[in-house]
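Hey, weird one. I pasted the Peptide/nickel transport system permease protein sequence into the form twice and got a warning about non-standard characters only the second time. First submission, copied straight from the form history:
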Amino acid sequence: MAMVDASASAVLLAEDTGLGRGRGWLRQLELVVPIALLVLVVGACFVWPLVGPVPDPIGGDVLSSNLPSFSPGHLLGTDPNGNDVWARLLYGGRSSLIVGVSVNVLGLLIGGTLGAVSAYAGGVLDAIIMRVLDVLIAFPSLVLTLAVAQSLGPSQLNTIFALAFFSVPAFARISRAATLRLREQPFMVAADLCGTRTWRMLFKHIAPNILPQLVTFSMLGMGIVIVIEGALSFLGLGIPPPAPSWGNMISQGQQSLSATPMLVVWPCLMLFLTVLAFNLLGETLRSRWSGR
């Protein structure tokens, strides 16, 4: 008994001193760092052009092409077409973030609804919905995304539709699994026995309880979508030039990579930081909401 008390006292002492505070700071940093990165990226892309002196990202002067960084009026220099690199980074970030958010919102709403309805209804409806989604999952999604993007043509809207179409099955599976677990909970059984309407069960009892899992998955999926959008733009199937996106900036920059490597480094760095922030935030939310 004395040994147990001594061990407990040592643990409490460690928590009261630096160890407990250190873990607390670490948990805070896990959340603060990715949020701060996202605030910086989103603020730079959406707010800075409204309040700061940012040149037009297209229609540059060819006579001012390939200017080095910190040239007068051009913070990061210009590209071979004379366009300001800093402006194209910001407006390209807008395009990439809009695609990422739109795809995940559509996937969450459509896939989350299909999965919840499928699990709650069960029976034939569940079998039909899930078999259709299984067929979509069985195909190589990246190859089909390229095919759909090619058939629709390069544009921001078509890129969103192509990527959202293949994000629905993943959201639906997560939603269905979470709803199946909820159906066995006592409060769900009690609500069902009280004759609660189906729409009320879905919106009041199921949706609030499965939303954290769907939001966590969307944070992790955001980085994947942004990378795929960049790949599509790199291949000329996403957002077409001269409209900027990080993907087509990398594609254009690699044509003169040996002479002006920073034209590729800057969009790659922005892409890396944004994807890293979304992945860190998604992993932190997952670990906290799972009760770890």
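That's the output from the first submission. The warning seems to come from a hidden character in my clipboard, not from the data itself. Residues 31-48+83-289 form a domain with the MetI-like fold fold (CATH 1.10.3720.10).
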